[in-house]
Automatic annotation (TrEMBL), chain A:
PANTHER family membership: SKP1 (PTHR11165)
Span of domain SKP1 component dimerisation: 123-170
Domain of life, source organism: Eukaryota
Domain SKP1 component POZ as annotated: residue spans: 8-71
Stated name of the protein: Skp1-related protein
Keywords on record: Ubl conjugation pathway
Automatic annotation (TrEMBL), chain B:
Superkingdom in the source lineage: Eukaryota
Family annotation (InterPro entries): F-box-like_dom_sf, F-box_dom
Pfam families in the cross-refs: F-box
Name the UniProt record assigns to this protein: F-box domain-containing protein
F-box domain residues: 17-55
Organism, as annotated: Pristionchus entomophagus
Amino acid sequence: RIYPLMRVTLTTSDGASVTVSRQLTKHSGFIEKAITDMAVDDNAVPLSAVAVDVDDATLKLVIEWLTEHRDDALPYPEKTDEERRADDIPAWDQAFVQKWDTKEDQQQTLYAVITAADKLDIKGLLDMTCKTLANKINGKTVEEMREILQLECDFTEEELAEIRKENAWCEN
Amino acid sequence: MQIITKNGVESEYLDLLSRLPNDCLMEIFARLDHNDHDEVATLSRRMCTLSDGSRSRCAKILVFGLEILQERRRELHFTMRLPRQKIFLELKDCTRPWDKLKKRNEGDVKDYKSHYTSELQVISGSVDGCAKPGEIIDRAAAILSKFDFQSLEFYSMCIDDHFLTWFEQIARTSRTLNNFILMNCFFDDAIRSDGRERLLSSLSLARPITMCLVFCCDASFIDETFLRNYAKAVLFARLGIFNAGQSRSLLFASKGLGESLSQLGMFSMPRLVINTDWLLSPLLKRLRHKTEGTWHFRTTRNIDQREIDTAMGSDMKCSSNGNRHTIELADANFKLDLRFIQDNMVATMWNIEAVFQYA
């Protein structure tokens, strides 16, 4: 049972504190479990602080997303393999992510939000951010992917040739 | 550690992707298609391992069509239809993990579609140096599993356990299959009734809009239940079912089947016999859909204009000329041309040709 007016204090990895409504935190499997583990009186206002391994700036973005999605149905629907698509991001979420695209550290922000969504077990946010990153690399060459992902190659040329040969479906 | 990107921009946020936990990466990779995975696999060792792990969940590459011809029950010739091009392929050896389909020159490819009109030559056994057809099918299934085919056409194929296993996999996973053709195909001697059931189950699952099944063996395993379920599942489907010895294995429809078939756009099944007494209702129902198409099957007798006049609605008008009848939807510029032809093979039967078209 969730009391929407109940508030939860979250302490971030960089020492900040944010108090939010339980209506938002109910979407986070991690926070809900932490509250359950505390075995506090559900009427306690606010609840004891829950420490989250997320920095303040990222948590603010997470809370912004949770505020928009506070009325989303729970539990978040499990996706079958056929439903794992990346072209169905809602308009508000697209605009939310595009706000970071104007920043120099947009990639870092996206990765930070993905990591936060994973740590806090917020399935909807994780789903949306994974789609966003998938869309960024979809249809790109390996060189373009390497640039987007800033990823170093640890294969030898021979190993790369072997992988390409294995993955090819036909020979000339 | 710092790297310099192609644009010469130094970044202190290195290997951001690598910092993500494996389950996040798997979620991201599950949304890529196989072409992307081929690229991701060459990014780094970890990405390669994770890409392998999530390939089974990733989107398939959409391909217009695949055609396979089996020659003399052994060699298999593959044709992939891509936008603006056809690729001719063969797979003769599949003993090594890296054996792939090999491209063939267009000039070396026979006009294989002519095969389905010729007599099937059956030669048992495999050719020296070539893998057995079953092994080739298994390998081809694995290699081609990254594709989602809109059209599948099989010519002179021997339907064996390997083929059925492959087609079951396609039927379970395909999201785009809308055209399926089995031309001049037959069942392997080892395949018993359960194999035929497996084929029908897969076809019911795949539900292609166009389906043409031409068997050079008995096709009496295709029964009313299959027809009913297919017609119900696929609106205005195009269905053709033919087999050798059609007069010997007639399928006499029960009373309700005609109504079920009224949803079919095109329908041709010479071994199906629908009693003329039950014919008019589904024909008129089909006419009211105002969708072009033709029907061919057998009936028990000709029909006369009086019967049509009694059955048709007030918004229809009919004209008859011997074995030909035309029923017109008065306000819709749409009509049904019916023609009854005495059957040459079964004296008591008639063939019916029903053409639904704009007047």
